[in-house]
Write a structure and sequence with these properties.
Helices cover 57% and strands 11% of the residues. It contains 23 helices and 10 strands. Strands 2-1-3-4-5 form a 5-stranded parallel sheet, with helices on both faces. A 5-stranded mixed sheet has the order 7-8-6-9-10, sandwiched between helices. Strand 7 and strand 8 form a beta hairpin. Helix 12 packs antiparallel against helix 15. This is Helix-turn-helix domain-containing protein.
Amino acid sequence: MTLMLIDDDVPMLEYVEYLLGSLGLDLQLVASAYSSEDALEQFHDVLPDLVIIDIGLPGMDGLELAAAFRITKPEVRLIFLTCYEDFHYSKRAIQLEADDYLIKDELSPEQLKDSLGKAMSRFKSREELLERYSFRQAIERNKEVLKQSFLKQLLSGAADQENTLEFGERLGISWKQPYLRHGFLHMDAVSVTERYRYKDIPLIHFAVNNIALELSAGEPSITPIMSREADLYLVWNVADPGIAENTLTAFMQAVMDKVEQYLKITLRGFYCGASVHLRNFDSLYKTLMESREYNFYKAVTPIAALDEQADFGQTAEWRGEKERGMLSLSLEEGQAAWIDLAVNQWTQQAAAERLLPRLVKEACGNFVRQLAFEAGGLAEEEFFTQLEQTVHIREAAGLTKRELRNLWRQHTLAPAAAEAKDIRLQAVDQFLEEHVDQMVTSTDMAEHLHLNASYFSRYFKKLSGVNFTDYVNQYKMNMAITMLARPHETVENVAYTLGFSDRAYFSKVFKKYSGRNPSEFKAVPPEEDGREPSTDDAKP
């Protein structure tokens, strides 16, 4: 341990140095100072563990100097020297947690050794306390990393499981029962990206974990562990392998409700129906990971049991050429609604074929790469990470549409264009873009805007000059004209794509708003008009 001496009385300073040599203490004298200014400078240089300091220094006295030392190094131990006893001095010394208050004229080797021994003991005790506190703080900061290590050890099978479980105990994971059930809470990427940026997702993930940890204090048999994906892995320790999942699902619902309340995002819960013995932890975990996407095409529910297996189609004959053409049209025509049409048509076909989720995501990623290339934009890299982690086709489609629309806006919308149309009509247009393949009514729009239906109808006509039905039909017929101009396009397909189930009704609406029949807008294929196909003809 290191020691510093401070006294403006040089003979006294030399006397103390002399005594130190005969005490046999494990101390190293690293600095001696004769003035307050010199003492401050040297203290900052050497940061000693112990200081013997004269109170009666000129200028800044020893007590003021010691207070300054405490700010720089709070754990430093202090022994004060003085020429006389003074209650005022001793009281201030006590306030500074001094280890001793020695009278110079009475100083003896035994007394100095005793005082230094106490100071050294207290320094060591405080140092150990600080180390333990720092260790606890480090554990808290890194607990999730340590939990990941704990999980990895359990899954490796290489480490002794008993030692691994002891490691878990130190992290607060106490599994006393012989069986485990698994589940996970998934952060819905669409709900997250509607409110937060991609770079915020790790922080949101951590916040969800904190909410789960807080709630798990009331249900210690359930252990939340952050996964590498945007999920929260849950392990429920149970005594009976046949126990119903009520406790686990109730915990999931409590976390979901609180996350919705505070973070305004949606979680989905999934659990395995089976329980396994603790020693088979790795097999159940593997089953859970393999079955993450087994519900990819099932109806969305807040909490669901994972299917034990899923029958997916491995290949798709239909590769989305038409949809890619629609994406190109979204840029050419400045119509974002083509994006939703393209993605909706692709996902409907994928769902009908029950295509392997990996292939669905691959196609969605390619849609984004295509539009980024054509628009001269740059897709956010984190989009592809989040797409890979989606667990449902609706989630994958929603995330893809969002990224495609962002690219479209970057390419198409100028600031003046955004200001040209009333912001309230922009909100209506965006809803129509997202639901262009459906028959949207004024009631649907009113519900979306949280307005009374009759009030919305009056309000909209005053705002736009036309009633809502006319506005929607004109919007769709403008799209229909563009679609019909494409080679080989059929009236039936255009009607179906725009949400009309009947060709005759579509034709009637089309003529009302365009003044002509749909067939009059149909393009003549190049091979039928006697011309050689040109580059423009080949364009989708």
